[in-house]
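Methods: holo model generation. Sequences were used as deposited, without trimming of termini or removal of tags, and paired with ligand SMILES retrieved from the corresponding compound records. Each pair was processed once, and we did not select among multiple samples. The sequence and zinc ion SMILES for this entry were:
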Amino acid sequence: MSDSNLEAAMKAVADSTDLSVRPIEKEDEGPTNTSVLIRTTDEVRERWRQAAAVEGKTMSAWIRDVLNAKAKTLLECEHPSVRRYPWSVTCLKCGQRLQ
Ligand SMILES: [Zn+2]
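and the model returned the structure below.
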């Protein structure tokens, strides 16, 4: 490839490269100890952004709140008041003694 061909090729690449930047989301005031990178599609990301906007939250805050609620449901027993006997003080779901 001659220098002129290389130059033309590089210009073509530069012209076709999308240098536009996504609009920056509203500043997130959440914890900054670590970050999680979530792979998804532009369509799903846009849905998350719209859902967060409905609740007036940044997308980060919204995702954090949704996942925290789900994790709490999965990891912590809410000790539903279903008892085998009226005097039972043991949670039938997780087995924890409540009194
Ligand atoms: Zn329980």
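The chain is about 45% helix and 0% strand.
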